[in-house]
Structure formats: structure tokens, C-alpha cells
Amino acid sequence: MKGxxxxxxxxxxxxxxxxxAGKLEFxxxxxxxxxxxxxxxxxxxxxxxxHTLTVAPLAVALANRGHEVYMLCETPDIYELPNVTCxxxxxxxDRPDFNSIGSLSSAMGHMMNITAAIGDNVNRIFSSPQIKxxxxxxxxxxxxxxxxxxxxxxxxxxxxxxxxxxTTTVFNPCQSAHFGNPQxxxxxxxxxxxxxxxxxxxxxxxxxxxxxxxxxxxxxxxxSIRKEVNKHFSELPPVSEFERNASLHFVTVNHALDxxxxxxxxxxxxxGLVLRPLQPLPEDIRDFLAGEDPVIYVxxxxxxxxxxxxxxxxxxxxxxxxxxxxxxxxxxLAGQNPQKIGNILFHNDVPQQTIxxxxxxxxxxxxxxxxxxxxxxYYGVPIIAIPxxxxxxKIASYLEQAGVAIALSWPTLTEADLLHSIxxxxxxxxxxxxxxxxxxxxxxxxxxxxxxxxFWSEYxxxxxxxxxxxxxxxxxxxxxxxxxxxxAITLLLICSTFWVVKYIVIAPTRNYxxxxxxxxxxxx
Length: 524
Fold this sequence. Notes:
It is a single chain. The protein is α/β, with parallel strands linked by helices. It has three domains: 2-16 and 34-98 and 105-275 and 446-468, Glycogen Phosphorylase B (Rossmann fold, 3-Layer(aba) Sandwich); 283-443, 3-Layer(aba) Sandwich (Rossmann fold); 481-516. It is built from 19 helices and 16 strands. It has helices at 2-6, 49-64, 107-125, 129-136, 148-154, 173-178, 201-229, 239-245, 255-258, 283-289, 312-323, 352-357, 370-379, 390-401, 415-427, 429-443, 449-462, 478-481, 484-523, and strands at residues 14-16, 25-27, 39-43, 68-73, 85-88, 143-147, 163-167, 248-251, 267-269, 295-299, 328-332, 339-341, 344-347, 361-366, 383-385, 405-407. A seven-stranded parallel beta sheet has the order 5-4-3-6-7-8-9. It is globular, with a radius of gyration of 28 Å. Belongs to the UDP-glycosyltransferase family.
């Protein structure tokens, strides 16, 4: 069993782009060859690279199975995915402005920022001749996969098409409800918080209202974006209707990280799809990791945090604290030239998964992003999480409660806090032991996330969106779904019965007894 789990994903054949150093490599699916080939379109025009790299393994695996796979790409195509044909758009897309760590600590600020960026991009996207042409030709494809943030801006292309929404962030109960699978806030977290199970009455109260607020903000987001889309496509139904019509929902969840979630057959868990074959280490990093000395790896994602996102004083604090550690440190910051100063090796870009897989790497200092967290869990590396946004905070909270991480805060971060947290994880073996246990759970699956994603993509193409798997609940109002009407009718029947008993049975009886009493008094 242990050997099976260790080789669960690594037994798959590997494909690469010409085998050149620095090019991305991906696993192949181990499923039998498909009976026929289909034409897939991936809508990934997002400037957030980590989201694209989460979905890219599926696109490459389908292409390697002989399917025609097209992807809406930025210009130039920085990914160069093997066997995937890029449809270049000539639009310079804005990424959400996450320029100041801590300034977007609230979910509302985060959502408003994303909504503004998507709204600006909508007008640019549908002014592009290439994308207008793609809209006209969309019915040439058998199935479309749209990344969660991209699909808001691209949903007109999904009109009257079978398609999947691929959620690359934390599980979204509001989106799940549109699929016909509302999550119960008595045990599923739906807002920006994570609570230990079972929820206390205060936890349930907080979770219920944070879920309602989060879903209200989500609805406001879709309404705001629809106003921009209507400038180009006034005849389209609302965004929520598109969401209800989605054939498939890829959710980036795993029991080890997210706990048990009740999912529909067309909600497919693909947590871990981001994992790729390990890339060779650059010579300077390989030499730095050599030997027996423990190493701390510090990396804050691909695009979430850049060197100008961290204020000068926080960057100085970070470097000052790390330089005082009795351990080697690899510090990845965008814009940094590779250089070694004292115990710190600075780097601009690194093969993160290969570093986390190295036996000498003992702690991962991260922003708590979903992709990096999944990688750390898979390779069993405890985390010091310094969240940048609300979803990072939710992940960090869960990891801390599970005993595999320590959560800190950028606004209140001090040198002493960081040093103490790293030393605590280094000196307390329970963090590594619990993360190793979580890693075993994460790896122990009957099939791989890639095979799962490939199977269901081909299944949807074969069955033209598989409407037989769509839940009838997606068309029910919340009044019907929660039986509010039945409870009202039941209450009315109870009240009516009480009235009948009181005024038709009891009242006449009382009157009869009263009249008998009067008669008796008169006769006596």
C-alpha cells in the first residue's frame, strides 16, 4: 500500500515540450485510448498564471490522447503547451490590483477589486476581432472548459454550449447552489472563515451569516459583470442561468485539505491536478540544497505577491529575520537576481515542486495559496502561512487547526513572530508528523485527479453535456428546496385543526354544559 501511494501519480507516462530545460512538463493520462476524438476549447485568457497552470495539465492530457485541443491564449503564449493549439487574442488584460499586502484583507475589498478588473477586461475582450470570430465559431467545439475567473468575462462564448467551470480557488458554496447542490452551513464553511468540527452555536451563526453575505457579494459580482457584457450581447440570459446550465464543475478539493464535501456526480474533485513531473534544479539551487543542512523555502506564489507588493519595511523585516536563522534559506521574490548573501539564496523563479520534494526542505513559508498548499501537502512539508487575501486566510486557518501550519498576518508581522514560528515548526516534530499523515491521505486515491478530469471531460463530450447528470434542484426556488411552502401549509393545517377543535367541538360542548348548569339551577 505504501509503495502504491508513493507511486500513485508518478507511474504515469510523462510528456514534455521538446525536453528543453525550463519548459513545462506534464503527466499523461493512464486511461485506455478513447473510442473517438473530440474538439475541446479551453477559455483561459487570465493573466493570473497560477490559475492557468492548474488547468493546463488537463488540456495537455486531452491533446496527447489525440483530441483537438484549442486554448484562448495571451500573446505571446508563455506556456507553449505541447500539442495544444493557441488561439491568440490581441487584448492586454488587466490583473486584479493586489499591490499592497494587507489592504485587501476583507472579502468585500477583494471581490470589488476582482469585479472591476473583470469588467474592464470584458469590454476589451469582446472588442477583439479574434474573440468575436471565436464566438461565431463556438459551435464547432464538442466541449468547452472555462476557468473560474475567466468564465465571468467569457460566458457569452458558452451560450447554448456544453461546458465545464473549473474552479481554481477554494470551494464556492454559492456556485455549488447554482449547480443544484446547496451546501448546509451547519457543517460546510461558506464564507471567509474556517471552523473546527463540530461547529459550536456561535460558529454556526457566524458561518450562516458570512455565507449569506458571501453569496450576496457573489451575486452582485455577476450582476455588475453582466451589465458590461450586455453592452455587447443584450439578448443573453443572466450569469446565474449560465451557471445552472453548466454540464460539469471541476472543484479543486481533496478530503485531506477540505474534509468530506457532499458533491453531485457532475461535481468532480480534482485537487492535486496542479502537480507535475519534477523539473531539474538549476545548478546553484542544487548545490545549495546539497548536504544534510535543513533548508527553509520562502515563496509567495507565481503572481499573487510580487516584489512591489510587499512594502519596503516588510521586505526588510523578512530578510532580516531570515538572515538570523541557523538554517539555509531559499527566498523567491519576483525581480530578484539569483545571488547568495549569507545563509539566503535569492531567486526570481524556481521549480517549486522540486524544491518542496527535496529531503532537506523542512519548512515552507508561503502566502497560503491553494496550489502551493496542495504541493506542500503532497510532499509533506509544514507551512508558515502569511495570507495575502481572504481565501488564503481560510486555507491558513484550516491548516493551523490541523496542526500542520502556523498562521501569521502581514499587517502585524514582526521579526520575532516569524523567527519564533519557524523555530517552533523546526523543533516540534508533531508538525512534520501530522503533515506526513495528511500527505498519505492526500495521495491515497483510487485514481488520479488527471485521469478523473480526463474521463469526465470525454464523458461530457460523448454525451453532449450529459444533461441526465444535472440535478433538478438547480431549477428549484429556495422556498421549494427548503420546504418552506410545505412547512407553511403544515402550520396552516395545524392552526386550522386547532381552530376547528376549539370553536366547533370544544366551544359548543362548553355552551351545552353551561346551559345544563343553568337548567339545573332553575329546577332546583
